[in-house]
Amino acid sequence: MLYWLADYLSQYVSAFGVVQYLTFRAILGVLTALGISLWLGPVMIRRLNLLQIGQSVRTDGPQSHLSKSGTPTMGGALILMAIFIATLLWSNLENRYVWVVLGVTFIFGAVGWVDDYRKVVEKNSRGLPARWKYFWQSVGGLGAAIFLYCTAGSAAETTLYVPFFKDVALPLTAMGGVCYIALTYFVIVGGSNAVNLTDGLDGLAIMPTVMVGGALGIFAYLTGHSQFADYLHIPYIAGAGELIVFCAALGGAGLGFLWFNTYPAQVFMGDVGALALGAALGVIAVIVRHEIVFFIMGGVFVMETLSVMIQVTSYKLTGKRVFRMAPIHHHFELKGWPEPRVIVRFWIITVMLVLIGLATLKLR
Question: Does the pLDDT of residue 64 top 60, yes or no?
Answer without folding.
Answer: no
